[in-house]
Amino acid sequence: MIHSSELDVALSGLFEAPHWLVGFSGGADSTVLLHLLKRWCTAHPGAPPLVALHVNHGLQCEADKWQQHCAEFCNELQVPLITRSVEVQAPGSEANAREARYGVFSANLQSGDVLFLAHHLDDQVETFFLRLMRGAGVEGLAGMPQQRQLGAGQLCRPLLDVSRDNIEAYACRHNLAFVTDPSNNNAAADRSFLRQQVLPLLSERWPAYRASVARAAGHMQAVAALLPDAPTTVFSALGDPGIRLVELQDMGQGPARCIRAWLRGQGLQAPDQSQLQEFLRQVYEKAQDSHPRLNYGGFVLACFGDAVYRVPDFGVSAPRQPIAIVPGEPCEVPGVGSVSLEPAAGEGLFVEPGERLTLGWREGGEQCRLCRREGTRSLKRVLQDARIPHWWRDRVPLLYRDEELLAVGDFALCLSSRYRDGAAVGETLWQMRWQRPATASSD
Questions:
Q1: Dist CA 117 CA 121 (whole Å)
Q2: Cα–Cα distance, 98 to 160 (Å, whole number)
Q3: CA–CA separation, 143 vs 139, rounded Å?
Q4: CA distance 442 to 96
Q5: What backbone phi and psi angles, to 5 degrees, belong to 343?
Q6: Do the Cβ atoms of 190 and 146 come closer than 8 Å?
Q7: Mean pLDDT, consecutive 10-residue segments, the chain of 443 residues?
Q8: How many Å apart are CA 54 and CA 79, to the nearest integer?
Q9: What is the SS3 assignment for the chain?
Q10: Would you say 395 and 314 are in contact if contact means Cβ atoms under 8 Å apart?
Q11: Cα dist. 227→246, 262, 295 in Å?
C-alpha cells in the first residue's frame, strides 16, 4: 500500500516552489496523487500551496459532469481548483488533445512552480513498448522523465515507480470516488490494445516484466544523458524555434540525431528515425519553391531558408472571410491566434470613436506603402523582406479601413490616412497585437 511518506525523496528538492499544481482529470491515478499530496502537505505545514488544475477537453458527453465531480472532490479535500476548457483540433487525435492539455499546463505555471502528473509504472511500460514498435532510438526508449522543465516551471511525476494495481488499491482503501473515461477501453487505440491484449500475456509468462522494462528504460536514460548537447536554437521572424541546416551537418552526429536531441531538449517526443530521414532527404534535395514538412504529435517540422523550424499544427485552413475588430476587444481567429488593437506608446493608427475596422487575409495583388520606406510595394514583397515563413503568409492578419490597408500583422505599419507618428493631446493611437498559437510542448 502506498503511503504519503514515500513521496519524501521526490518532493524534497521542490519545497521552495511558489505553488504546487496537480494535473487533475478526476480519474483514479490523478485522484490518488492529489489525495497523497494533500496528506503530505498536511504533514508538512511549510509545503507550498497545493492547487488542482482540471482541463475539460469536451471530447466526451460526460465531460462537464467530470468537471463537476472534480470540483466536489477538491471541495472535500479543501484544495483550490482551477478549471480550463479547451477546443481540440481534430478531436479524434490523442496527440492534439495532449497538446491542448499541455498548453494549459504551461500557461498556468508561474516561474518556479511545479506541476505534478500521475503517470505511473504501467504508463511508463506502455510508453516503452509503443515507442519500441515505432522503432524509437535511445532517447525514445528512455521513456518519460521523472522531472523536466515545462514552461516557466517544472513537471514532476512522483508515481513513476508505482504500479497501477497499487494505485487502485490505495483508492479502494481510502474509498476514493473517481471517474472512468470509456475511451481507455477502446481497443482500436494502440495503448488500449497493448494494455488489454498484449501485456496480460507478458504478465503470465514474466510476472516481473514491469520492473524489467523500467530497469531497461533507466539504462536508456543513462545513455541518453551522455549524448551530445542539442544544437543551438534560432527563431523565425514570427518566433518559431529552429535549427540551422549548416549546424545539422557540422555537429558530426548525423542530422536526424541532432533534431532528435533538439526536440528532446524541449521535452518533446521525436518522430521515428525513418520519418526524420525521409523529411531530411526532401530538405536537402528539395527543388526550388518546394516546402518539405513532417507532421508529428501536435507539431510540424518545416524548412524555410537555411533552417528547419518547429511549427504549430494549425489544424484548420487559413481564414478567408473578413472579420470586424474594434479597439480593446481581442479577436480569436482559429489557426491564427489572438488579434487585438491596443494603445500605442508612439506611432500608431487613429480610429474614430465606435469605428469598426476589418481583419482581412492575403488574396494576391495587394499593395501598400510602408512607413519610412520609399515607393509602393506588393504585399508579397513586404512578407519576403520581413522573412515571414511560407506557413504564416496566408495567416498574417491585414488591418483595413474599407479598402485601405493600414497594417500588416504586428510588424509593419502602412503610410495610410490613419497613420500618425505621434498622438495629439488627449488622443489615443492604436497598434495591432498578434498573439500566435504556441507550438507543442509535451512528452
A1: 13
A2: 19
A3: 8
A4: 10
A5: -55, 140
A6: no
A7: 84 91 96 96 92 90 92 96 81 68 85 94 91 76 85 90 94 94 74 89 92 90 72 83 82 74 72 84 74 82 91 86 91 89 88 89 90 84 92 94 92 90 87 77 44
A8: 12
A9: CCCHHHHHHHHHHHCCCCCEEEECCCCHHHHHHHHHHHHHHHHCCCCCCEEEEEEECCCCCCHHHHHHHHHHHHHHHCCCEEEEECCCCCCCCHHHHHHHHHHHHHHCCCCCCEEECCCCHHHHHHHHHHHHHCCCCHHHHCCCCCEEEECCEEEECCCCCCCHHHHHHHHHHCCCCCCCCHHHHCCCCHHHHHHHHHHHHHHHHCCCHHHHHHHHHHHHHHHHCCCCCCCCCEECCCCCEEEEHHHHHHCCCCHHHHHHHHHHHCCCCCCCHHHHHHHHHHHHHCCCCCCCEEEECCEEEEEECCEEEEEECCCCCCCCCCEEECCCCCEEECCCEEEEEEECCCCEEECCCCCCEEEECCCCCCEECECCCCCCEEHHHHHHHCCCCCCCCCCCCEEEECCEEEEECCCEEECCCCEECCCCCCCCEEEEEEECCCCCCCC
A10: yes
A11: 20, 11, 25
Lookup result for grid cell 502528473: 117
- 20-23 vs 114-116, strand pairing mode: parallel
- Give the integer Cα–Cα distance in Å for 308 and 235: 10
As given in the structure block, the three cell numbers for residue 199 are 501485456
